[in-house]
Amino acid sequence: MFFDLLKPGGEALIFAPSRNKTFHQFAEMAQELFEVKIDQNYDSRVLDLHFKMLKEMPDIYNESLHFPMMMRLSKQHTASSSREVTPESR
């Protein structure tokens, strides 16, 4: 169902912490339908704050729970996607 939400060539951005690898488990599943790219260096301000928290509050700041990574899901163009699929055409 999520696959149908993006048109061919469309992208979705997901920001979430790794949560003890569930982020990466989701990425593996998503690779069956989408091109998946993961980026931890998507914004210098977020990255600077991340390193500051690691240094200054290591007993409170948990990277797995607090640092959001960015996942980009891209729906590729295919020969079968040359026409738009609408709810009426299904």
Automatic annotation (TrEMBL):
Signal peptide coordinates: none
Query: Which GO molecular function terms does the record list?
Result: calmodulin-lysine N-methyltransferase activity
Example of a GO cellular component annotation carried by this entry? cytoplasm
Q: Which UniProt keywords apply?
A: Cytoplasm, Methyltransferase, Nucleus, Transferase
Under which name does UniProt file this protein? Uncharacterized protein
What biological-process GO terms show up in the record?
methylation
Q: Which Gene3D superfamilies match?
A: Vaccinia Virus protein VP39 (3.40.50.150)
Which species is this record about?
Biomphalaria glabrata
Q: Which domain of life is it from?
A: Eukaryota
Instruction: Kindly indicate whether the keyword Secreted belongs to this entry.
Output: no
Q: Which InterPro entries match?
A: CaM-Lys-N-MeTrfase, SAM-dependent_MTases_sf
- Major location category of this protein: cytoplasm
- Localization (cell): Cytoplasm; Nucleus
